[in-house]
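hey so i finally got around to running the thing on that chain from the lab meeting. sorry it took forever, my laptop kept dying and i had to restart like 3 times. anyway pasting the input first so we r on the same page abt which one it is
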Amino acid sequence: MKKYHVYGMGAALVDTEIEVSDADLRSCGVDKGLMTLVDESRQAELLHHLESHLVYSKRASGGSAGNTIIAISSFGGHTFFSGKVADDDNGNFYMGDMDAAGVATVSTPAEKGITGKCLILITPDAERSMNTFLGISETLSERELDEQAIADSEYLYVESYLVTSDSGRAAAIAARKTAEANGTKIAISFSDPGIITHFTDGVKAMMGSKVDLVFCNQDEALSFASTDDLDTAIKKIKQASHEVVITLGAKGAIIFDGNQQFSVAGVAVDAVDTNGAGDMFAGAFLYGLTHGMSHQEAGNFASAAAAKVVSQFGPRLAAHEYQAIIAAFN
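ok and heres what got predicted. didnt touch it at all, straight out
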């Protein structure tokens, strides 16, 4: 029996959400529905332009893998997270937030610098457009890995956003090799269509010959396979992963469990914010797999969790809501 259910690694970012209009996106020159890397001055420029808008969420520790790991921990799983924050107010906040969520983290001392920040703009159709200043998280490296914790985890979960950093990509490859050597299953999230389009070779290097599980949405799947046909994309991803989860938004998901391919229905809700939906789906799904659920059961569980998170602002649920979802499935 391993100590941790899931070991996650990714960019450690402090998130701020703001509700905007499509006109705001156009006037700010923001690409809708995508993650765009920006410098700190560009992020400040956007905040100044949108200062009259209502901020719906307090700052929260985030980043894609961070959100997923917090979800698993909030459902009751044992988790570990490798990310890099600076020795500043946001960095102290981030690590404190992780600790409060029950997530174990690396003991490596924080360095001087600026903790990464993500400005998330939410339009009335619930779509999220992210403007990310990576800050010190861009220098995530093998220094921030805990090989013993990886070896002592059932799954290693990696976000593809790490591919944009040379040291982050190298750390992901090192973590994958440690996992392979210790019987830890490897799961990767494709993270963003643009990441897959522009860094395909780097993502494949992170994956190695074959991973155990890929999480992606339809656009990311099509980007990975360089096709506009989903069936063709699924065949391509199966060559790189033993199991596949493709989320389809309100339509649910397609899951390949290594033997059978099946669909999971979406749960009808009034969506207000899709930020964190994929992260929540991955977290709930991995929680399910590591707690005795079949792939079908884990898919239904994850679909319910993702629907709950898009029905409110922010990528997190209240503590009692996680337990309510579990209770509904027991």
